[in-house]
Amino acid sequence: MYKKSDISRYTDGFTSCDLNELNSRAAMMTRIDNKYIIKSGDLLSLKSMLAEKFDVLEIKRERGFNYATRYFDDPDRSAYYEHHQGRRKGFKVRIRRYLEARLCYVELKMKEKRSTTIKQRLDYDFDGYETLSSEALQFVKNGYQTHYEKPFGYKVQAVLDIEYQRLTLVSKDGAERMTIDTDLVFNNGQRRLEAEDGIFIVETKSENGRGYADKCLRSRHLYPAKRCSKYCIGMAALSEVTRYNHFLPTMRKLQILEMPVENTGYLALAA
Q1: Does the pTM of the predicted model rise above 0.70?
Q2: Which of 54, 170, 207, 270 is 20–30 Å from 48 (CA)?
């Protein structure tokens, strides 16, 4: 994926920090997430407020970074439907690549009480990320069984690729993080969809879900989206599932458009 949006104007006035500093301040592997869908003008209106309390991740003079994420699910789409039904013991399995940094991780996301998100991750081969190795699958099984105290009985396979451009903010005191995603593309190997330009998914990550970033957003009468999983939105928009009413409001806000799949450079998913 190549960057489309000029995002530099959203970070003017922010102090920068590097990746090591960001992770040492706020790894946020256990947190409460809130997601918002906002437009360009709303984001610009928040810039000065956020710059007072947050620094922006910068690597090699770049502040916007391209992410490529491959999601895995079983033939019954259990990960999707457990999330759709609001089950407390849901999961997501994915391989995420940070393209500029050439980093790659297998990630397992689970839930705890109070809707707290638990994320575990394993270093992975950047150039061989298409499938889960036996080591990666065992990592997922072990993490799931340890957390939920039951076996991981799902036979997962690649089902969806999502790519986007991200800004990452970290609070100066390390208490919270904030990610800002744009240029979203969803691809299942047969169809490719894009979210409308100038629309952002903003995710706040804090200990209690009521951080400074949340207060700033609410001051502009912007409130969390009830159902805003990028994975679930992509699965619904690409007709990989049959029940998706809970995600229709979010899909409308993102104004997802269908694009030609040929000659996109996207890796086709294995059948």
Answers
A1: yes
A2: 207
